[in-house]
Write a structure and sequence with these properties.
single chain; alpha/beta; 11-stranded mixed sheet; about 35% helix; about 20% strand
Length: about 350
Amino acid sequence: MSTTSRITAAALAAAAGMTALAGCGGSGGGSGADAKTVTLVTHDSFNASKSVLAAFEKESGYKVKVVRGGDAGQAVNQAILSKDNPQGDVFFGIDNTLLSRGLNAGIFTPYTAKGLDSVPAGLQLDKDAHRVTPLDYGDICVNYDRAYFTQHKLAPPQTFDDLLKPEYKNLLVTENSATSSPGLAFQLGTIATHGEAGWPDYWKKLKANGVEVVDGWEQAYNERFSGSAAGKGKGDKPLVVSYASSPPAEVMGKKPAPEQAPTGVATGTCFRQIEFGGLLKGARNEKGGKALLDFLLSKRFQEDMPLQMFVNPAREDAKEPELFTRYGAKVDKPATLAPDTITKNREQWIKQWSSLVLK
């Protein structure tokens, strides 16, 4: 995810007005010389309940330091650039759209996390080497502001092709494929739908229809999207590339609970994103890093994830909360691409997309 992503991706918790982890966030690099500190390098969307994190710290004896590095794409790039002097011990937030970039750069040390037997084989994209551990998944989809479409007596789009229609001109904001994991996932969704030969023409038409591109999810969702509670409706774009699980974030904390979320999901525009964590090569606290990876895959953390980061837990035996299942969109047939296909073409596709859309 997801995300990833998640979603990853994407800080959906921030969209719900949630606060970041108190006392364990950080912006500096390095895990330090303290063997009792384990450093988690991640994206801005990472969040966990204080009580869940505190339980791990009490049981393991390790203090968790969280180093956030922007959008998932930015965080992965930074992890690669700093691989000779890693910022921490564990990386959380590399997804299937970027996975080969991290694996080929050799930034991870193989480790088989406890609980991996509870994760479906379809999510284990590195199951032979175990350099990364699947931790969550989600679907990247176009979200829409229900109030806007009701007010304008316009049916919201449901498919990629719908987005090309004149009635949706200048309504969509998406993220940059080169810098954002959700942005790249959305591009891959158009490639899966229109094929390797047809997607450039699709994007030419989408550009002509006024799509706006911003650097990352936070800017797209919280600043440009008109349906974001965090943005208080100040954005002027009623369509945004986000997650199928974004609507529950807009409902959280509202009393009485509404019949439906104020935002909806165009389920014909979704791409499946799987998010992973891994032990960073050269980690100063490798033992602590392994313990942290085990914790990230534990039922306690996995069941905390849905309402913290609005992603689906990777473990099959992890229960999802009612708010998440009631208001989140169910995507039966998300677009997908084989990891090998993404690996072979990703950099070329991103360059081609940048040339088509950003110039």
